[in-house]
């Protein structure tokens, strides 16, 4: 089995690569080679199954080495995320749309050479729903992206679904929620404060939160997201909706509830150490999430963390 991970040096990508090398794919499916690509990769890979392919995915010759031998599947994680996409929309378009279309073209070329269509697991985002959310979000909620990042991801979802219908690939797009906890580094993601919230309070340190205590959001732990990405690699296409896009099961909680869960898990007075300093833009983007229902994803076997305390425990497990 030969797979490719794009964005392999990112927060999710690094954890996914580790999991693939240590455990393979669900069902005991082992890897013979794992091609990984990003602008820069760690030096001297120690696992002989790794094929490092550092490079810029916006350049036409970057994809060729990954497809030199047929791929069984691809995890496409590479992107220009939210805040950076807003500040640099042209760069975001080139990476999020043009490079993705180039990937789809290579999948089509592989299939037209008589090889099996590869499974493509595309990392989309809940940002496709926009900022003005209805009282409940479910499988029938229309996408109405407000930010550049969400618009690009929705366009790519449509391209993945179209290519799947044509038989050029076998795609599934996962609308990922906020993922916790991200490392303390500048990533351009406006939701990064949630990772800082868990990290700082878990260590008993005070934290100034840019939302109100009642702000509600959706989030999943990194281990939970990795589990769902791996499940997407093997799930039967008959269990997927025609759109090939899924809103993943995830937790909804208020920031005050998250602080209380941190306190219970780590035995620290977390709720007492939060200073609430609401920022209207942050509150609007990340603090007004309604209840959600994810029947299609649950039917296909995808799962959430279960409860806030489990999310807190798992969120630092792979950090």
TrEMBL record:
Domain NAD-dependent epimerase/dehydratase: residue ranges: 3-208
UniProtKB keywords: Carbohydrate metabolism, NADP
Highest taxon, organism lineage: Bacteria
InterPro entries referenced in this protein's UniProt entry, alphabetically: Epimerase_deHydtase, NAD(P)-bd_dom_sf
Pfam family, one: Epimerase
Gene3D superfamilies: NAD(P)-binding Rossmann-like Domain (3.40.50.720), UDP-galactose 4-epimerase, domain 1 (3.90.25.10)
PANTHER family in the cross-refs: ADP-L-GLYCERO-D-MANNO-HEPTOSE-6-EPIMERASE, NUCLEOSIDE-DIPHOSPHATE-SUGAR EPIMERASE
Protein name: Nucleoside-diphosphate-sugar epimerase
Native source organism of the sequence: Hydrogenophaga palleronii
